[in-house]
Specification:
The complex is a heterotrimer of chains A (about 270), B (about 270) and C (about 500). Chain A is globular and about 70 Å long. Chain A folds into two domains: about 40 residues, no CATH class; about 170 residues, MetI-like fold, CATH 1.10.3720.10. Chain A has 13 helices and no strands. With about 270 residues, chain A is mostly helical. Chain B contains 14 helices and no strands. The longest helix of chain B is centred in the first third of the chain and has 32 residues. With about 500 residues, chain C is an alpha/beta fold. In chain C, about 30% of the residues lie in helices and about 20% in strands. Chain C contains 16 helices and 23 strands. The radius of gyration of chain C is 24 Å and the shape is globular. The chains are: A mainly alpha (about 270), B mainly alpha (about 270), C alpha/beta (about 500). Chains A and B meet through helix 1, helix 4, helix 5, helix 8 and helix 9 of A and helix 1, helix 5, helix 6, helix 8 and helix 11 of B.
């Protein structure tokens, strides 16, 4: 693990201090790459837009995934089929499906504006409008809930039946069952999903690369560093962006861990 | 009341089920269209005429997808086996075994998740070049045995939902750490293990970037890379591409169905507490 | 070291009927029967180069309608390749030499890959002691992969590159020089006489040639005949001005039916200056690529950008980027536009649509004359190769007249960088009637695409984004120009 993960990570940290070009490590550049970041307005925009995406997509994604997991956890006939259906968009992403999205997002004859028209709302520019492009990308992310839904489902399935039996004896309502059994028992999983969704949203790449290539206010850090490294061949600069991205993600994850003590319940520590 | 509940549940399932199935239906529909029908706008959902030949033509065109299929099976099979072993052991160690600096080590594992893969790509590539592993499956197979940070974190969270009393009871019965894991904890973690298996399968089956970098011969690369060969710079044969995409997706759906049977509640924790 | 020997009168390229016709019968309500039948391969044309027959062709019958009957026979395009080309091969690797493997890397899409397999098989047949380890990466990801290989010092022995990308590889010393090898060959490999002069500076540094260009061409005005027939207008010709393009576009655009007069695809990219600015005497960066201020914001360039951007912003006779992406198909291929500047390599895509009746014309002129932009690609040998002789053996045959003919000319995908390999282009299958206009254009009014410096990618990405914002109406031409000048200026490093 140290070899396959640690070495490349340390290497990219070291590279961030070099004027690293295509074939040669180039000159030692000290903190020059970092000072350049300070005056790079495209970097600053990407930083802000990454935070914007995270603030929008994480709550949406976690809530929709949890709701979907609860829905497909119901004991009704055929529910396994629906689990698969909800999971499908997570494995059918990519270029092939992008055409469908382009069609739905088209301002003049797209499906979404047609729908808005039905309910009397004037159409918007979606991914083609600087103000709506990022919300559109966030909306798209609500389709890729499959992985989080599966994790929540596994968590729900892991809650022992007897705990529900215990509160049922006390005549608990549906809400009370959820509030006093499901939520606390699921809290380690909710915590996990929240942390990884934040981490992943800081690394959002594919949807934006395919749909807007970072234009119209959708440039995010992972995409920006990819362009810098693989298109402009400025690997030192790209690595510096990565280090910043790493520090920010790390700080936020640390905060989440610190705050988790207040609401996450661990059975192993003997809660009952 | 009960009927109302069923109506509500099915209403929601059907509505959202449909919304989430649209992209797949689109793939399916395109895969049966003739090339000229794929060019029409607005797009037509019902193929006509039905071009069933897209499937054999796409699968056995200039590239032999049987070979890609075989390669993907080998690479993905290794990954599932590797992750089920290594991630479980590492996560167990982090969750239950008291070792010094456990918190610090775990933080490092988490930290590796926070580096975007686009960054480590080049250093990793250079590393594997030095090993002479490029154009072999080793860069895709060996690292799987060192665990995946995401799974380690996830499994650790699941271990922590299991009461410590379980271990203690087993330990009193004279079980060692490994036997506790195997006989007591794992049987209670089937949904979590199934999740790891599904994610590993899907992640490796669909992985594009790594096989793209490490493999590029006609005989050693994977389905995900092969699928992209339909994409030209100026022209893409979407119908054949979708046909192959549907075929590639089938195992994913089957695996999902298969592992789903472990998502069944009723784990016997009742005997221990209550 | 010179060529070690010659294989004479050997078959350099074999013959093969690459596309077969499939048979599919479908009955539709007893009214019309569409039937696909196999066509016998018939030779109707021969092309002679230096007294030798280099190509034979089949007649391509797209549709045969039998009057009075309800049978429509639809015949697939059958692609034929040259029969037998006899040519001397100059040998750099002795037949008794130890067997070596050379790696090659290409970026072919699936439907063009078979020719590559065939070429390599034939090559290995001629040189049993050279094994070709062929790699192929789809275009969108080719660069990611190639940069990783360059960084690791493991570039394939022979690899593909493109005009706007090669400068970065040249400045980091990724290639071996080829001039010595060429000098040892008959007629210096034709470098002086046979290759298009405009392409030479792109692959040459300090007099040394580092890669061999294989194609050269650019977009000229293509048109969908149906729009002109329906409007009762004559097709565009050499007399057309850019104002004629605009007027006709206004006449035929019906946006609700997804029909527009004109599509532009070169807005903000390598073709922008040649296609849109030069007609008005404008430039977007200086020819030495050191200046943009005073160039991109000159009166001529602003006038030309205003003229062309009005197609989208004022007259709305062109699909905007949102419309283009939503169509899911090239607007020309889908029959959504009457006119478009089409490069030769897109002809195969147009032919995917059997309902599209298209042709090309000389590009329209502006107040300062007729212009357009051209771009090319090349192959070279990596610095890290262990078998330069074997790599040159492959490269020299791949980039020979016969190799170019086989891989590009007869596939109708490119006008080749060798003049001798351009001869078969007009008669290749699937070409439009006006095919000669493409060749005339490269020989007369096309200018090299820009930029070609090592920062090309970054410049084009930034310029593309800024120009697209403008065409979507988010910024004015003045704002967009000022922003582009400001952001691109620090990136100009010259050629």
């Amino acid at each position: 693990m140290v070899l396959f993960w640690g070495v490349p990570i340390i290497a990219s940290f070291v590279i961030s201090f070099f004027d690293w070009k295509l074939l040669s490590p180039g000159e030692f550049a000290g903190v020059e790459n970092y000072t350049k970041l300070g005056t790079d307005r495209r970097f600053k925009a990407a930083l802000w837009q990454t935070i914007y995406y995270t603030l929008g997509s994480v709550p949406l994604n976690v809530l929709v995934a949890l709701a979907a997991a609860i829905l497909v956890n119901q004991k009704v006939r055929g529910v396994t089929l629906f689990r698969t259906l909800f999971y499908l968009p997570s494995v059918t992403a990519g270029v092939a499906i992008s055409i469908l999205w382009y069609w739905m997002f088209n301002p003049d004859f797209g499906l979404f504006n047609w729908f808005l028209g039905l309910i009397g709302v004037p159409g918007i520019g979606w991914i083609w409008d600087r103000n709506w492009a990022m919300p559109s990308i966030i909306l798209m992310s609500a389709w890729s809930i499959g992985a989080n839904m599966v994790i929540f489902l596994a968590g729900l399935q892991g809650i022992p039946e007897h705990l529900y039996d215990a509160v049922d004896v006390d005549g608990a309502t549906r809400y009370q069952r959820f509030r006093h059994v499901t939520l606390p028992m699921l809290s380690p999983v909710i915590f996990f999903v929240s942390v990884i969704t934040v981490v992943q949203s800081f690394q959002i790449f594919t949807n934006i690369y395919v749909m807007t290539r970072g234009e119209r206010g959708t440039m995010v850090l992972a995409l920006y560093l990819f362009f810098k490294g693989f298109e402009d061949l400025k690997m030192g600069y790209a690595s510096a962006i990565a280090v910043i991205l790493f520090v920010i993600t790390g700080v936020i994850a640390l905060l989440q861990f610190r705050l988790s003590g207040a609401w996450v319940y661990y059975e192993e520590e003997g809660g009952q | 009341m009960r009927v109302l509940r069923y109506v509500l549940i099915y209403g929601l399932l059907l509505t959202f089920g449909f919304i989430y199935t649209v992209p797949f239906l689109w793939m399916l529909s395109t895969s049966f269209k003739t090339l000229s029908q794929t060019l029409r706008f607005p797009p037509e959902w019902i193929p006509g005429p039905w071009a069933f030949e897209n499937y054999p033509n796409g699968w056995m065109g200039a590239f032999d997808f049987n070979i890609f299929f075989r390669n993907s099976v080998a690479i993905t099979g290794n990954a599932v086996l590797a992750q089920m072993t290594s991630s479980v052991l590492i996560a167990y160690a982090f969750a239950r075994i008291r070792v010094p600096e456990r918190g610090f080590l775990f933080a490092i594992v988490l930290a590796t998740m926070m580096i975007p893969p686009q960054v480590t790509l080049i250093p990793q590539y250079i590393l594997f070049t030095k090993f002479g592993w490029v154009e072999t499956w080793l860069p895709l197979m060996v690292p799987q045995w060192t665990g995946w940070p995401l799974f380690v974190f996830m499994l650790r969270q699941f271990f922590r939902t299991l009461p410590a009393d379980l271990d203690d009871a087993a330990r009193i019965d004279g079980c060692g750490s490994f036997r506790i894991l195997w006989h007591v904890l794992l049987p209670n973690m089937k949904p979590a293990l199934a999740t790891v298996a599904i994610f590993t399968f899907v992640g490796n089956w669909n992985d594009f970037l790594h096989p793209l970098l490490y493999l590029s011969r006609d005989d050693n690369t994977t389905l995900a890379v092969g699928l992209n060969m339909f994409r030209g710079q100026y022209r893409t044969q979407f119908n054949e591409m979708m046909a192959v995409a549907v075929l590639i997706l089938l195992p994913v759906i089957l695996i999902f169905f298969f592992f789903q049977q472990y998502f069944v509640r009723g784990i016997a924790l009742t005997g221990i507490k209550g | 070291m010179g060529p070690l020997g010659r294989i004479t009168r050997r078959k350099v390229l074999g013959t093969g009927l690459l596309g077969g016709a499939s048979t599919l019968a479908l009955a539709a309500c007893g009214e019309t029967v569409v039937e696909r039948v196999e066509v016998p391969v018939e030779v109707i044309k021969e092309v002679q180069v230096a007294g030798e027959t280099v190509v034979q062709e089949v007649e391509v019958v797209k549709e045969v309608e039998v009057p009075g009957e309800t049978v429509v026979k639809e015949v697939e395009v059958v692609k034929e390749v040259p029969v037998e080309v006899v040519k001397e091969v100059e040998v750099f690797v002795p037949a008794e030499a130890e067997k070596v493997t050379i790696s090659t890397s290409h970026s072919w899409p699936e439907h063009r890959y078979q020719e590559q397999i065939d070429f390599d098989d034939l090559f290995m047949g001629r040189h049993p002691n050279i094994e070709i380890d062929r790699r192929n990466t789809v275009w969108a990801e080719y660069w990611t992969k190639t940069f990783a290989q360059a960084a690791a010092g493991t570039l394939p022995d022979v690899f593909y590159n493109q005009d706007t990308r090669i400068a970065a590889f040249l400045s980091s010393d990724s290639y071996i020089g080829l001039t010595d090898y060429m000098r040892q060959m008959t007629d210096g490999y034709g470098w002086e006489n046979d290759f298009v002069d405009l392409l030479k500076p792109i692959v040459t540094r300090d007099g040394e040639v580092y890669a061999i260009p294989y194609d050269w061409g650019g977009p000229v005005l293509s048109y969908n005949k149906a729009y002109f027939d329906d409007a009762g207008s004559s097709y565009p010709d050499a007399s057309w001005m850019n104002t004629d393009v605009l007027e006709f576009s206004k006449e035929v655009t019906v946006a609700e039916d997804r029909k527009w007069g004109f599509a532009y695809r070169y807005w903000g990219n390598w073709g922008h200056e040649g296609i849109y600015n030069r007609q008005f005497g404008g430039r977007w960066i200086s020819d030495d690529e050191l200046e943009i201020s005073g160039v991109m914001d000159s009166a001529e360039t602003l006038a030309s950008n205003e003229f062309w951007s009005n197609f989208a912003l004022v007259d709305k006779v062109t699909p905007n980027p949102a419309d283009e992406e939503a169509l899911g198909v090239h607007p020309m291929t889908g029959g959504h536009v009457a006119m478009y500047h089409a490069p030769p390599w897109q002809a195969a895509g147009f032919n995917d649509n059997p309902d599209l009746d298209w042709d090309i014309a000389p590009s329209e002129s502006g107040p300062e004359g007729q212009f357009g932009a051209a771009l090319g690609s090349n192959y070279g040998i990596a610095k890290n190769t262990e078998h330069p002789d074997a790599a040159w053996q492959y490269l020299s045959e791949y980039m020979s007249t016969e190799g170019m003919n086989y891989m590009w000319t007869y596939q109708a995908t490119a006008i080749c960088a060798r003049k001798s390999a351009q001869l078969g282009f007009p008669s290749a299958p699937g070409q439009p009637d006006g095919v000669q206009h493409w060749i005339d254009a490269v020989n007369t009014y096309l200018v090299p695409g820009k930029p070609l410096s090592e920062n090309s990618n970054e410049i084009l990405r930034i310029n593309g984004e800024i120009m697209r914002d403008m065409i979507l109406g988010a910024t004015t031409l003045q704002e967009a120009t000022a922003q582009a000048v400001e952001e691109i200026e620090p990136l100009l490093v010259g050629l």
